[in-house]
Design brief:
Elements: H1 15-21, E1 25-31, E2 37-42, E3 48-55, H2 62-72, E4 81-87, E5 90-96, E6 101-102, H3 112-132, H4 144-150, E7 168-171, E8 180-182, E9 188-191, E10 198-201, H5 203-217, H6 222-229, H7 235-247
Antiparallel strand pairs: 1-2, 2-3, 3-5, 4-5, 6-8, 7-10, 8-9
Helix pairs in contact: 3-5, 3-6, 5-6, 5-7
């Protein structure tokens, strides 16, 4: 499994991002597995904006994320879209910064106690998101059927049929630890990277978010995650939604 993360070396800055930045300091903070980049733009007064870049041919759909952010922003702390555009090299989206830092920031990697604080913060933040976003008002789907259809995955791929739905919620769609923002005390301040947000069984998020604790903090944190979310382990649903994640 290819894991996204901070770029190993500063990447070239697309011309569109330089234009958006103006006099702001530009720092690449994230590189995803499809070649998309996120840049932090810091002004002289220390205020921050973030510019996401999707190069042509990457398959990333920033337009889909834009409409989801605009919808979710009425109910939860997510980035506010400032502008959006395209050129011959790719697409970009500029958002206002949120308070807090990624649950994967150095502060939360400094000790096992800080890692545990972050894991619990991520779990509680996910539960808050699931309890807050209104299912009946959500125009987006992240259901098993839609995901399999979108990726043209055959039912013979070992990820169908799905287990019965436990509880429908508006899922984050990529609830891995880096996409939760926390304050210094591990309290959630926001959620980012919502390009797949949509209605689905809550285990579609829970299974992957709990799994991401091992990728991002090391083994031994999954139980703490589930306890902080407030749910008992469900091996069948966790196994299924992790297989689906890998397949799509």
């Amino acid at each position: 499994m290819e894991i996204a993360g901070p770029p190993a070396a500063p990447p070239p800055v697309p011309a569109a991002i330089r234009a958006l930045a103006g006099d702001d300091r530009i720092r690449a903070v994230w590189l995803n597995s499809l070649g998309g980049l996120t840049f932090e733009l810091t002004a002289a007064d220390s205020s921050r904006r973030f510019a996401k870049w999707a190069p042509v041919g990457s398959g990333l759909d920033l337009g889909a994320e834009r409409v989801r952010l605009e919808w979710a922003g009425a109910f939860a702390a997510v980035p506010r879209v400032l502008s959006f555009g395209s050129d011959t090299d790719g697409d970009w989206m500029l958002t206002a910064g949120l308070p807090g830092a990624s649950a994967m920031s150095a502060s939360f990697q400094s000790s096992s106690e800080r890692k545990l604080l972050a894991v619990r913060g991520v779990a509680r933040g996910l539960r808050m998101l699931h309890d807050t976003l209104p299912v009946d008002a959500c125009p987006f789907s992240w259901s098993v059927a839609d995901r399999l259809t979108a990726e043209q995955i055959s039912v013979d791929a070992g990820v169908d049929p799905a287990p019965p739905v436990d509880r429908l919620v508006v899922c984050h769609g990529d609830a891995c630890a880096p996409n939760t923002l926390l304050d210094a005390n591990g309290v959630v301040t926001g959620h980012v990277d919502l390009g797949s947000l949509g209605v689905a069984d809550r285990w579609a998020d829970i299974a992957v978010s709990a799994w991401s604790t091992e990728w991002n903090y090391g083994p031994g944190y999954e139980t703490a995650f589930l306890e902080a979310y407030g749910i008992a382990p469900d091996s069948e649903r966790m196994r299924y939604y992790r297989a689906l994640w890998n397949a799509t």
